[in-house]
Design brief:
The complex is a heterodimer of chains A (117) and B (169). By secondary structure, chain A is mainly α. Chain A has 4 helices and no strands. Chain A is elongated. Chain B has 169 residues and is mostly helical. Chain B is built from 7 helices and no strands. Classes of the chains: A mainly alpha (117), B mainly alpha (169).
Chain lengths: 117, 169
């Protein structure tokens, strides 16, 4: 019994010390879930966009961690593409938000329901 | 194991803590402007994580594009639209708690998948891939996506200008 607990503790300690791919993946999963939470629960459109950026970053961490693990530059190339697409998305999204603000006098995503039946 | 290797590996934990705290602040702060500031902190943490992963060019690009461009754009948008801090979040507390619970389950499933998977590829040692490899790959294998991306970026920026301009009547 004591040996089992000791082994468990030892495994956990080794997992803590040996930071590798799995640690980055778990961190990225956490950031992704926080981002989804923000997208679902916040009402301010700008905050929704910021949560989206969090999710982009989580995906980028995944790509770079895998690229590091496999020793190829493909992961970094894809992460660069994602950064560029995120820049385009942010520009267009914020322009749309400014337009919404002009038309609705506010950026509450719950109030913008013109396309609802 | 060398002590410097262990230290550089353990540097993951404080950086991860900063990123997570900043991310939670982004989705929970009532004031949108403070949320944007903590988003910048989160981006900075991710950039230092890239440094730990020996992706120096990506770290630079992260600082330039995310902190330099996107954050400034977001802060501009906050300034243009009046800060409406009373519109905090939609739904009741029960709604938010249930959303958080479902996302926690999602996180548990992902973590279990990561932990139970036997990662057969050993970690590549050394200093990782150099910026030369990235440049060569971008201009040979991924040339078409690269060029298409530049056109997309141009189109998106012109479209953003078109959308955000003042209507003249």
């Amino acid at each position: 019994m004591i040996e089992f607990i000791y082994n468990c503790f030892n495994n956990c300690w080794n997992f803590f010390l040996d930071v590798g791919l799995v640690h980055y993946l778990i961190l990225s999963a956490l950031i992704f879930c926080i981002g989804i939470y923000g997208v679902i629960t916040r009402r301010n459109a700008i905050t929704v966009l910021m949560s989206l950026e969090l999710m982009f970053n989580a995906v980028n961490i995944n790509f770079i961690a895998f690229g590091r693990q496999l020793g190829t530059p493909v992961g970094q190339v894809f992460a660069l593409f994602i950064i560029a697409v995120a820049a385009a998305e942010a520009a267009v999204g914020l322009a749309i938000i400014i337009n919404i603000y002009r038309n609705f006098r506010g950026v509450d995503v719950d109030k913008v329901d013109l396309l609802k039946w | 194991m060398d002590i410097s290797v262990i230290i550089s590996k353990l540097a993951f934990y404080p950086i991860a803590a900063v990123i997570l705290i900043a991310a939670i602040l982004v989705v929970s702060l009532r004031n949108v402007f403070y949320a944007a500031l903590s988003l910048i902190l989160c981006f900075l943490g991710v950039a230092s994580l890239y440094l730990l992963l020996h992706a120096e060019f990506l770290a630079g690009a992260q600082v330039l594009i995310y902190i330099g461009a996107i954050s400034v754009l977001i802060i501009f948008a906050i300034m243009f639209t009046k800060d409406i801090s009373h519109q905090y979040s939609s739904g009741t507390l029960l709604y938010r708690v249930s959303v958080g619970f479902v996302l926690f389950l999602l996180f548990l499933v992902m973590t279990a998948a990561y932990l139970l998977n036997a990662w057969t590829h050993a970690a590549a040692g050394g200093t990782g891939v150099s910026i030369t490899d990235i440049g060569k790959m971008m201009l040979s294998t991924y040339l078409l996506p690269f060029e298409a991306l530049s056109v997309l970026l141009l189109a998106a920026l012109i479209g953003a200008l078109f959308l955000a301009r003042k209507e003249e009547r």
